[in-house]
Amino acid sequence: MTATIDRANQIVRATAERLIGEGREIGVQVAAYLDGALVIDVAAGIADPASGRPVDPDTLFHVFSVTKGVLVTALHIQAERGRLDLDDPVVRHWPEYGANGKAETTIRQVVQHRSGLPQMPPEVTPEKMCDWEWMVARLAAMAPLVPPGTRTFYQSMTHGWLIGEIIRRSDPGFRTIGKFVHDEIAEPLGISDLWIGLPEAAAKRLARLVDARPPSPPSALYARSVPPQVDMVPAVFERPDVRAAEIAGVGGIFNARSSARFWAMLAQGGALDGVQLLSPDRVAGFSRPLGGPEDPDIAAFGGQIPSIDGFWLGGPAPAVAAAKHPSAICHSGAGNSMGWADPAHRLGVAICHNRMSDPGGADATLEIADTIRKSLGLN
User: Which structural domain, as residue segments, surrounds residue 129?
Assistant: First the structure.
């Protein structure tokens, strides 16, 4: 078995190094758990092009919306403990949220990106985005773009404050989302680097972002949900105050080992190494689709299918193709970082990198994903 794992790592490393040599990646980490054991652990390339600092297994990466998988799991932990029900109105836990036509919004609608509130406050700045109390107060006061529950509008950034504040309000300790994730997910699972709010001491391990996405005019909705002054670009997300803030929808800073260990727990029905965070029935429900490709709201996501309970499902769309199987639950991040759990194969995978490409350029991530499966003998 050891020889098989060594050979699989050699194959994955060769793919990563080829992609780096072709200029399609700069620095890459890949980790995969199979049946609860770490079987792929690869670090290659350059973490900081300016200094030449190499990627090692402890290098940290911005993973952007991969963070949402951890965020939604934290919410389901609260539901498992009876501290909330996904069909509760948000105002049961967060009374101020009912302003301006949002009183009937349910937690489930927020989880499903159907709150009608994908837009950031128009006066947001990087500094204000780092102020949790300011953000949640402004979101609570805002009017939705459409009546809650009527349309699927991806909550690119607002997802983090909406769900994070529901978790905080329903927690007896009133913990912040970063503290909750550390206490209830990372620590029980023995995960060292699952940061929502990066400590300054860890910043020296952070890979530098290179934004290689071609310029393109944003849609009107995207410009409201991700205003240019807080866009997911190096100039914003490499600021010390931003990386230290608990920006729970897109601000996660992980490494592949830590992210893959989290997804491995979901791949095994909510348990890893004897630690049960969620029930198997709840995790099985994460693979239920919310809609089909014929749904116009889903078509707007390029064919990505969100699940009933807040994850994305694998499939042919570029942003989720790495997860492949339609029962696999996943989340990609800006620039094509990726994490997924494939329950059918008990496989949890994370791919972290610092060269951000557009969703149509997700082929490098897909090549790594296909190489992982092939090297492990999985379909």
Answer: 75-175
- As given in the structure block, the two tokens for residue 30 are 């890949």
pTM (two decimals): 0.97
CA 253 vs CA 117, 282, 337: distances in Å: 25, 26, 11
* CA nearest to 38, candidates 270, 253, 272: 272
One DSSP character per residue, 210-228 reads EE-PPP-PPPHHHHHHS-G
Name the domain boundary from 142, 175, 208. 175
Block residue for tokens 């990627």? 55
pLDDT averages per 10-residue partition of the chain, 379 residues: 87 98 97 98 98 98 98 98 98 98 98 97 98 98 97 96 98 98 98 98 98 87 95 97 98 98 98 98 96 81 86 92 95 96 98 90 91 94
Residues 228 and 310 in one domain: yes
Distance (Å) of CA 336 to CA 139, 161, 276:
28, 22, 30
State how far the Cα of 28 lies from the Cα of 20, in Å rounded to an integer: 8
